[in-house]
Structure to design on (168 residues):
Protein backbone atom coordinates (compact mmCIF):
# COMPACT_ATOMS: atom_id res chain seq x y z
CA UNK A 1 0.00 0.00 0.00
CA UNK A 2 1.09 3.66 -0.32
CA UNK A 3 2.45 4.76 3.04
CA UNK A 4 3.58 8.12 4.35
CA UNK A 5 7.10 7.20 5.44
CA UNK A 6 7.54 10.27 7.67
CA UNK A 7 4.43 9.25 9.60
CA UNK A 8 5.43 5.59 9.88
CA UNK A 9 8.99 6.37 11.02
CA UNK A 10 7.66 8.91 13.56
CA UNK A 11 5.20 6.35 14.86
CA UNK A 12 7.93 3.74 15.35
CA UNK A 13 10.25 6.25 17.07
CA UNK A 14 7.42 7.54 19.31
CA UNK A 15 7.09 4.01 20.65
CA UNK A 16 10.81 3.82 21.47
CA UNK A 17 10.56 7.22 23.19
CA UNK A 18 7.59 5.99 25.22
CA UNK A 19 9.45 2.90 26.43
CA UNK A 20 12.08 5.17 28.01
CA UNK A 21 9.54 7.64 29.44
CA UNK A 22 7.41 4.95 31.08
CA UNK A 23 10.28 2.95 32.57
CA UNK A 24 11.24 4.27 36.04
CA UNK A 25 14.55 2.47 36.14
CA UNK A 26 15.51 1.64 32.58
CA UNK A 27 18.45 -0.74 32.19
CA UNK A 28 19.68 1.56 29.51
CA UNK A 29 18.72 5.08 28.50
CA UNK A 30 19.02 6.64 25.08
CA UNK A 31 18.03 9.78 23.26
CA UNK A 32 16.49 9.73 19.81
CA UNK A 33 17.14 12.67 17.50
CA UNK A 34 14.97 13.06 14.40
CA UNK A 35 16.17 14.87 11.31
CA UNK A 36 13.42 14.49 8.75
CA UNK A 37 12.65 16.29 5.55
CA UNK A 38 9.49 18.39 5.93
CA UNK A 39 8.14 17.03 2.70
CA UNK A 40 5.88 13.97 3.02
CA UNK A 41 7.42 10.97 1.29
CA UNK A 42 4.90 8.44 0.04
CA UNK A 43 6.27 5.00 -0.74
CA UNK A 44 4.78 1.67 -1.75
CA UNK A 45 5.55 -0.69 1.16
CA UNK A 46 4.10 -3.36 3.39
CA UNK A 47 3.58 -1.47 6.67
CA UNK A 48 3.91 -4.48 8.99
CA UNK A 49 7.07 -5.82 7.41
CA UNK A 50 8.69 -2.42 7.10
CA UNK A 51 7.85 -1.65 10.73
CA UNK A 52 9.66 -4.86 11.66
CA UNK A 53 12.73 -3.63 9.75
CA UNK A 54 12.71 -0.25 11.53
CA UNK A 55 12.17 -1.95 14.90
CA UNK A 56 15.21 -4.15 14.31
CA UNK A 57 17.46 -1.23 13.34
CA UNK A 58 16.36 0.67 16.43
CA UNK A 59 16.71 -2.34 18.73
CA UNK A 60 20.21 -2.97 17.38
CA UNK A 61 21.20 0.68 17.81
CA UNK A 62 20.08 0.56 21.44
CA UNK A 63 21.45 -2.92 22.16
CA UNK A 64 24.92 -2.14 20.82
CA UNK A 65 25.21 1.35 22.35
CA UNK A 66 26.49 2.45 25.74
CA UNK A 67 24.06 3.84 28.29
CA UNK A 68 22.93 7.34 27.40
CA UNK A 69 23.77 7.04 23.72
CA UNK A 70 22.27 9.32 21.10
CA UNK A 71 20.55 7.68 18.13
CA UNK A 72 20.09 9.96 15.17
CA UNK A 73 17.33 9.06 12.71
CA UNK A 74 17.22 10.76 9.34
CA UNK A 75 14.82 10.77 6.44
CA UNK A 76 15.54 12.53 3.17
CA UNK A 77 14.91 12.27 -0.55
CA UNK A 78 17.31 12.24 -3.44
CA UNK A 79 16.35 12.37 -7.10
CA UNK A 80 14.96 8.82 -7.35
CA UNK A 81 15.15 7.48 -3.82
CA UNK A 82 14.18 8.06 -0.26
CA UNK A 83 16.98 7.43 2.20
CA UNK A 84 16.36 6.56 5.79
CA UNK A 85 19.18 6.14 8.29
CA UNK A 86 19.74 5.16 11.90
CA UNK A 87 23.06 6.26 13.41
CA UNK A 88 24.37 5.18 16.80
CA UNK A 89 27.44 5.97 18.89
CA UNK A 90 27.92 2.38 19.91
CA UNK A 91 30.42 -0.45 19.64
CA UNK A 92 30.68 -0.30 15.90
CA UNK A 93 31.38 -3.30 13.68
CA UNK A 94 34.87 -4.55 12.82
CA UNK A 95 35.63 -4.03 9.14
CA UNK A 96 36.05 -7.76 8.49
CA UNK A 97 32.57 -8.53 9.84
CA UNK A 98 30.70 -5.87 7.88
CA UNK A 99 30.13 -7.99 4.74
CA UNK A 100 28.58 -10.77 6.84
CA UNK A 101 26.21 -9.08 9.27
CA UNK A 102 23.30 -9.37 6.80
CA UNK A 103 23.77 -13.16 6.66
CA UNK A 104 21.39 -15.38 8.58
CA UNK A 105 22.52 -16.12 12.15
CA UNK A 106 25.74 -14.14 11.75
CA UNK A 107 26.65 -12.24 14.89
CA UNK A 108 29.85 -10.32 15.58
CA UNK A 109 31.79 -11.68 18.53
CA UNK A 110 29.68 -14.57 19.74
CA UNK A 111 30.34 -13.91 23.43
CA UNK A 112 29.49 -10.23 23.23
CA UNK A 113 26.36 -10.88 21.21
CA UNK A 114 25.13 -13.79 23.30
CA UNK A 115 25.21 -11.60 26.40
CA UNK A 116 22.89 -9.18 24.55
CA UNK A 117 20.39 -11.80 23.42
CA UNK A 118 19.02 -12.24 19.92
CA UNK A 119 19.27 -14.74 17.11
CA UNK A 120 21.18 -12.96 14.37
CA UNK A 121 18.18 -12.99 12.03
CA UNK A 122 17.11 -9.36 12.28
CA UNK A 123 19.33 -7.93 9.56
CA UNK A 124 18.88 -10.94 7.25
CA UNK A 125 15.11 -10.46 7.38
CA UNK A 126 15.53 -6.71 6.99
CA UNK A 127 17.57 -7.20 3.84
CA UNK A 128 14.96 -9.56 2.39
CA UNK A 129 12.16 -7.08 3.01
CA UNK A 130 14.10 -4.14 1.59
CA UNK A 131 15.22 -6.06 -1.50
CA UNK A 132 11.65 -7.19 -2.11
CA UNK A 133 10.73 -3.50 -2.30
CA UNK A 134 13.49 -2.89 -4.85
CA UNK A 135 15.60 -1.07 -2.27
CA UNK A 136 19.02 -1.42 -0.69
CA UNK A 137 20.29 -1.66 2.87
CA UNK A 138 23.89 -1.05 3.92
CA UNK A 139 26.01 0.05 6.83
CA UNK A 140 28.82 2.46 7.45
CA UNK A 141 30.57 1.58 10.70
CA UNK A 142 33.79 2.15 12.63
CA UNK A 143 34.78 -0.05 15.50
CA UNK A 144 34.53 1.84 18.77
CA UNK A 145 32.89 4.84 17.10
CA UNK A 146 29.44 3.74 16.01
CA UNK A 147 27.36 2.54 13.08
CA UNK A 148 24.99 4.11 10.61
CA UNK A 149 22.52 1.84 8.82
CA UNK A 150 20.99 3.15 5.60
CA UNK A 151 17.95 2.06 3.64
CA UNK A 152 17.17 3.45 0.23
CA UNK A 153 13.85 2.83 -1.49
CA UNK A 154 12.79 3.72 -4.99
CA UNK A 155 10.76 6.89 -4.93
CA UNK A 156 8.88 8.79 -7.55
CA UNK A 157 8.46 12.36 -6.40
CA UNK A 158 4.94 13.62 -6.54
CA UNK A 159 4.45 15.72 -9.67
CA UNK A 160 1.65 18.17 -10.11
CA UNK A 161 1.02 16.87 -13.64
CA UNK A 162 0.02 13.52 -12.17
CA UNK A 163 -3.19 15.14 -11.04
CA UNK A 164 -4.28 15.68 -14.59
CA UNK A 165 -5.56 13.23 -17.12
CA UNK A 166 -4.23 13.46 -20.65
CA UNK A 167 -7.69 14.57 -21.79
CA UNK A 168 -8.00 17.56 -19.47
P1 LIG B 1 18.07 -10.44 16.37
O1 LIG B 1 17.95 -9.17 15.56
O2 LIG B 1 17.73 -11.65 15.59
O3 LIG B 1 17.40 -10.34 17.69
P2 LIG B 1 20.84 -9.68 16.40
O4 LIG B 1 20.48 -8.27 16.75
O5 LIG B 1 22.08 -10.24 17.01
O6 LIG B 1 19.62 -10.65 16.75
P3 LIG B 1 20.99 -8.80 13.64
O7 LIG B 1 20.04 -7.69 13.90
O8 LIG B 1 20.84 -9.57 12.38
O9 LIG B 1 20.97 -9.86 14.82
O10 LIG B 1 22.48 -8.23 13.68
C1 LIG B 1 23.56 -9.10 13.37
C2 LIG B 1 24.81 -8.71 14.13
O11 LIG B 1 25.32 -7.49 13.63
C3 LIG B 1 24.58 -8.46 15.61
O12 LIG B 1 24.65 -9.64 16.37
C4 LIG B 1 25.74 -7.51 15.96
O13 LIG B 1 26.92 -8.26 16.17
C5 LIG B 1 25.90 -6.72 14.66
N1 LIG B 1 25.18 -5.42 14.74
C6 LIG B 1 23.95 -5.14 14.22
N2 LIG B 1 23.60 -3.87 14.44
C7 LIG B 1 24.64 -3.30 15.11
C8 LIG B 1 24.90 -1.98 15.61
N3 LIG B 1 24.01 -0.99 15.49
N4 LIG B 1 26.09 -1.77 16.24
C9 LIG B 1 27.00 -2.77 16.36
N5 LIG B 1 26.82 -4.03 15.90
C10 LIG B 1 25.65 -4.30 15.29
MG1 LIG C 1 18.83 -7.32 15.71
Amino acid sequence: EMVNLNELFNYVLDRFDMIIEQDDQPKKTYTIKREFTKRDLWVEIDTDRFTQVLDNLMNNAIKYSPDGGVITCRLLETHNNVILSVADQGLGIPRADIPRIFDRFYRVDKARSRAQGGTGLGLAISREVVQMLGGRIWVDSREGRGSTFYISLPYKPYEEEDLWDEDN
Observations:
- The mean pLDDT is 92.
- The first strand starts at residue 2 and ends at 4.
- Strands lie at 2-4, 30-36, 42-44, 69-77, 81-87, 136-142, 146-154.
- The CA atoms of residues 91 and 144 lie 5 Å apart.
